[in-house]
């Protein structure tokens, strides 16, 4: 039996640097081009009735990059939110951010909070942006909050635990897409992808487009998700 349409797609948007390198451009140019793809994919996802789209924008490990690149990326996130927020509201998109906020600068935190507040009634698509996100940190934070809330060992099961993750309220991804051909998860949604289907393409993120997303969805639909059973 093949799978139905994916309700939730999570994407590891990788390959901006390599895209730029191939063209003798700076890595920054690659990131800028990547933002254009991101906009296209958000709009297309809404159009084709994807209900949840989760995008990996900056990992908790990406701070290891040169300071110049990190600060370029932070400025790019700020300017992108400023430019795109009205459009997202108009398109009925609900925006959420996951990741450790305390590690982010004040200006970006203010924008994140504002974007979440202004889009909270969005009904068309839930767009979750992983920013300063690490899957292991998310699990550690969940454990800390369970302890703070004095939840007893007997009360903890998978469902309760899930509610303590940053992604509480969002179903697990059906499909995880990674661009640029790396066969790894890079600390993304570790708990949530337990039974997600994986799709890895060599296409670099700035070259990814609607057709590539269609291709990934078509591939997903041909999969047989067994969840441990035998049908
Ligand atoms: C993904 O592109 C964007 C971020 C991690 C912010 P990369 O910058 O990782 O591109 P490559 O992997 O160096 O090509
Ligand atoms: C994963 O890409 C993080 C994002 C896409 C934001 P990386 O480029 O950081 O992953 P690694 O370092 O190649 O595993
Ligand atoms: Mg990369």
Q: Architecture, according to CATH?
A: 3-Layer(aba) Sandwich
Largest sheet: 6 strands, parallel
At the fourth level of CATH, the homologous superfamily is: Decaprenyl diphosphate synthase-like
**Compounds present?**
3-methylbut-3-enyl trihydrogen diphosphate, magnesium ion
Uncertain spans? none
Family: Belongs to the UPP synthase family.
Binding site for Mg(2+): 14, 197
Binding site for substrate: 15-19, 27, 31, 59-61, 63, 65, 178, 184-186
Function: Catalyzes the condensation of isopentenyl diphosphate (IPP) with allylic pyrophosphates generating different type of terpenoids.
Structure description:
This protein is of the alpha/beta class and 231 residues long. The protein has one domain (8-133, 174-185, 198-221): Decaprenyl diphosphate synthase-like (Undecaprenyl pyrophosphate synthetase, 3-Layer(aba) Sandwich), CATH 3.40.1180.10. The chain is 42% helix and 16% strand. The protein contains 7 helices and 6 strands; from the N terminus they run βααβαβαβααββα. Strands 3-4-2-1-5-6 form a 6-stranded parallel β-sheet, sandwiched between helices. α4 links the parallel β3 and β4. The longest helix has 24 residues, at 67-90. The protein is globular. The mean pLDDT is 98.
Describe the structure concisely:
With 231 residues, the chain is α/β, with parallel strands linked by helices. The protein has seven helices and six strands.
């Amino acid at each position: 039996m093949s799978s139905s349409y994916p309700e939730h797609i999570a994407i590891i948007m990788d390959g901006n640097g390599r895209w730029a390198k191939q063209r003798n451009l700076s890595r920054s140019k690659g990131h800028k081009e990547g933002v254009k793809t991101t906009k296209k994919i958000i709009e297309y996802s809404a159009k084709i009735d994807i209900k949840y789209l989760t995008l990996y924008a900056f990992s908790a490990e990406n701070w290891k990059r040169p300071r110049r690149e990190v600060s370029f990326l932070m400025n790019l996130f700020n300017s992108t939110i400023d430019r795109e927020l009205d459009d997202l509201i108009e398109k009925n998109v609900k925006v959420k951010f996951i990741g450790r906020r305390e590690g982010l600068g004040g200006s970006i935190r203010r924008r994140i909070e504002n974007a979440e507040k202004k889009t909270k009634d969005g009904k068309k698509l839930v767009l979750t942006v992983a920013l300063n996100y690490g899957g292991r940190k998310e699990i550690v934070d969940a454990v800390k909050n369970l302890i703070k809330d004095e939840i007893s060992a007997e009360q903890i099961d998978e469902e309760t635990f899930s509610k303590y993750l940053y992604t509480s309220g969002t179903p697990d991804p059906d499909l995880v897409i990674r661009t640029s051909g790396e066969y790894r998860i890079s600390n993304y949604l570790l708990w949530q992808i337990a039974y997600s289907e994986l799709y890895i393409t060599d296409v670099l993120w700035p070259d990814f487009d609607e057709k590539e997303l269609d291709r990934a969805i078509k591939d997903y639909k041909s999969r047989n998700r067994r969840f441990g059973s035998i049908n």
